[in-house]
Amino acid sequence: MIPKILVTGSGGQLGKCIKDLDEGLLNIQYVNSSELDITNKRQVECFFEKNKFDWCINCAAYTAVDKAESDYETAFKVNVQGAKNLAESCKEYRVKLVHVSTDFVFDGASNKPYKEVDDTNPIGAYGDTKLDGENEIAKILNEHFIIRTSWLYSEHGNNFLKTMLRLSRDRDQLGVVGDQIGTPTYAKDLAKAILHIIENDLSDYGIYHYSNNGVASWYDFAKAIFDITNSSIQLNNITTAQFPTPAKRPHFSVLDKTKTEITFKLEIPYWRDSLIAAIQNIKNE
Ligand SMILES: NC(=O)C1=CN([C@@H]2O[C@H](COP(=O)(O)OP(=O)(O)OC[C@H]3O[C@@H](n4cnc5c(N)ncnc54)[C@H](OP(=O)(O)O)[C@@H]3O)[C@@H](O)[C@H]2O)C=CC1
Ligand SMILES: Cc1cn([C@H]2C[C@H](O)[C@@H](COP(=O)(O)OP(=O)(O)O[C@H]3O[C@@H](C)C(=O)[C@@H](O)[C@H]3O)O2)c(=O)[nH]c1=O
């Protein structure tokens, strides 16, 4: 039987990437923030009571990293209370939950890729609320997949790729930090991995890491974008100290995907290959 799937926060970039992959063969209901506010417990309960689902993919989140520092309350409501509301309703109505989390649950002090079992220690409000959200889900619901990803970009919404493309049109030169290391992830690749879990009805519940393969600094990421698009902008490799932001970001947040690759039998694309594909998709729009 085809599973019935709910996608919350479907107006965001990950939600839209899932929709892009949906060829009508799956039974997916998409709800954006105005159709279902995950912070509204009563609304979530009523929604789950009225509609029967086998899976819920939670793409809803507060993702404004800098803004979260001065608006912790809203970030907490969405990333913690919202995650808790969904987990509670999933438990009550026997729905399996795929929830998305972040590399920003780590402090970045490591010098080797982070495994799922490694100690977390967020250094900013966004990462803090995302970690609390993970913990709420794990407390309430056994049937969950928490997928930590990093540096998401796509043709949809606001993201680093689209910011760089815009700045390359507006500016002659640009400074981008070279001392924050992680891995860019095409949201469409993540969307495929999530649908792979559901289509194969996997049940090895728990926390998993998924990013594209390889390692890059934000500077490397920007450099690749400008190389691929033949941009003539002058790109300067700067330090975090030269680009002050309200939120601290981890200096190193590469995720170890061994558990994901083995358990899900997934081949994960290298970040530069996916970037080329994403830029091509933007050009074709
Ligand atoms: N973006 C990134 O670089 C990374 C993201 N992640 C995680 O991946 C997931 C998807 O991120 P991404 O698609 O980029 O995020 P987006 O910011 O693009 O989308 C988030 C969506 O959540 C919706 N939303 C916010 N509040 C609520 C609410 N109360 N009820 C329902 N929906 C709500 C937003 O709707 P509206 O706009 O209407 O408020 C928006 O459409 C998130 O869990 C994020 O933490 C992890 C690592 C990197
Ligand atoms: C725009 C810009 C950013 N930067 C730096 C700031 C920052 O350190 C880094 C990335 O900036 P952004 O604000 O685009 O991305 P940021 O919001 O930090 O991205 C994070 O978002 C959340 C949601 C996550 O979960 C993380 O995995 C990560 O993707 O690049 C520059 O150095 N120069 C620039 O011109």
Automatic annotation (TrEMBL):
RmlD-like substrate binding domain sequence ranges: 4-282
Classification via Gene3D superfamilies: NAD(P)-binding Rossmann-like Domain (3.40.50.720), UDP-galactose 4-epimerase, domain 1 (3.90.25.10)
NCBIfam families to which the protein is assigned, alphabetical: rmlD
Alphabetical keyword list: NADP, Oxidoreductase
Reaction catalysis annotation: dTDP-beta-L-rhamnose + NADP(+) = dTDP-4-dehydro-beta-L-rhamnose + NADPH + H(+)
Annotated family: Belongs to the dTDP-4-dehydrorhamnose reductase family.
Assigned EC number: 1.1.1.133
Taxonomy of the source species: Bacteria, Pseudomonadati, Bacteroidota, Flavobacteriia, Flavobacteriales
Pathways per UniProt: Carbohydrate biosynthesis; dTDP-L-rhamnose biosynthesis
Protein's name according to its UniProt entry: dTDP-4-dehydrorhamnose reductase
Described function: Catalyzes the reduction of dTDP-6-deoxy-L-lyxo-4-hexulose to yield dTDP-L-rhamnose.
Top-rank EC class of the record's enzyme: oxidoreductase
InterPro entries hit by this protein: dTDP_dehydrorham_reduct (IPR005913), NAD(P)-bd_dom_sf (IPR036291), RmlD-like-bd (IPR029903)
